[in-house]
Write a structure and sequence with these properties.
The chain has 205 residues and is of the alpha/beta class. 35% of the residues lie in helices and 15% in strands. The radius of gyration is 19 Å and the shape is globular.
Length: 205
């Protein structure tokens, strides 16, 4: 898929570094050389590879005339933090629906992302029990906002609805290397591995 044909906001302008991990490689032995793609250095509030998807999602929201973003995640969700941060940059309201997977684990006065939600100016935080229908909860909030005259746009996470062809291919986009990076490896790249929780970065068809 040619991702260049989809509108984006231009959040990702430079390739993130490909960094060698010699100590880790030595510990593994067997003539293995491990490298890490430093997507933690991407722009946004404290970085993270979710920005790659949000580059497209925010462009779609703006093109549709949205003035409000709704998304969901766990109570300390990095996805929610970055979605909120980019919404604020774009001048859009942002509402979060948080899933309390461990009972009584949400604390609005907590540090980490909970603190950043407030610092960044989240419009509302709705906390629902673990196992809730997250897409349904977001759609319920969207309906309420529409009744107030808002134009909400839902940024889903995998599992809340069937992913689009674009979202299916964003994982591959995250693993693309520049010619300079490939040249620096001198033919050493044999396998790529990607960590995933929800699979938002590494969705398989």
């Amino acid at each position: 898929m040619n991702l260049a044909k989809f509108p984006r906001r231009g959040y990702v302008t430079e390739p993130t570094p490909l960094e060698a991990l010699p100590n880790f490689s030595k510990a593994l032995g067997a003539d293995i050389n491990i490298y890490i793609k430093r997507d933690d250095l991407l722009p946004g509030t404290a970085g993270g590879n979710k920005t790659r998807k949000l580059d497209f999602s925010m462009a779609d929201a703006i093109n549709q005339g949205a003035d409000t973003i709704i998304t969901c995640g766990a109570v300390q969700s990095n996805h929610c933090r970055l979605t909120l941060a980019w919404a604020v940059k774009e001048g859009l309201d942002c509402h979060l629906v948080l899933e309390e997977r461990v009972k009584d684990s949400y604390n609005p006065e907590a540090s980490g992302n909970n603190f950043l939600f407030q610092l960044l100016g989240v419009k509302s935080v709705t906390v629902v029990p673990g196992g809730s229908n997250m897409l349904g909860e977001m759609e319920k909030l969207a309906e309420k906002l529409r009744a107030e005259g808002k134009k909400p746009y839902i940024v889903p996470i995998p599992g809340t609805r069937k992913c689009s062809r674009l979202e299916e291919n964003l994982g591959a986009a995250a693993l693309r290397f520049t010619p300079e990076e490939l040249a620096s490896l001198d033919g050493e790249l044999r396998h790529t591995k990607m960590s995933a929780v929800f699979g938002g970065t590494a969705i398989k068809k």
